[in-house]
Design goal:
By secondary structure, this protein is an alpha/beta fold. It contains five helices and five strands; from the N terminus they run βαββαβαβαα. The relative contact order is 0.16.
Length: 140
């Protein structure tokens, strides 16, 4: 069962709706992973964990340890960071990884991939996630 949910990229336009939904469910312990330079404020119900502005891989693993799920809300075009986070989540024992792929059409459609470059980045993330899942990492 998913109880502890970490949210990263919580300063964009999408995060308030996701954060509000998680908090209003009343069943999740929510942690926001925030850069140390961030000036953002969060509701009292949220635990905030600060990371360095350019964290090494192990710092991601450390902050994700003990979390059940990670929700990514920064731009989906940042595929390299998403894949790095997915690897860290798998190493930390996170069960669910929800990539920044909100509001997309089918990003595996050949036509979409040909016409819209962001879908190529999203497909790259999905392929990486599928490899992690099939490798027995425990991530889904």
């Amino acid at each position: 069962m998913i109880k502890k949910v970490a949210l990263i990229g919580a300063n964009g336009r999408l995060w308030p709706a996701i954060l509000d939904t998680l908090l209003s469910a009343g069943t999740f312990m929510v942690t926001v992973i925030s850069r140390s330079s961030s000036k953002s404020a969060y509701p009292d119900l949220v635990h905030v964990t600060h990371i360095s502005d350019d964290p090494p891989f192990e710092e991601f693993v450390d902050v994700l340890r003990g979390q059940d799920a990670l929700v990514v809300t920064f731009p989906g075009s940042n595929s390299d960071l998403q894949m790095r986070l997915a690897d860290a989540a798998a190493q930390a024992g996170v069960k669910r990884f929800i990539p920044a792929d909100f509001g997309s059409c089918d990003s595996s459609s050949p036509r979409a991939l040909d016409l819209v470059s962001i879908y190529r980045a999203k497909q790259k993330v999905w392929q990486h996630l599928q490899q992690l899942v099939t490798s027995g990492s425990g991530l889904s």
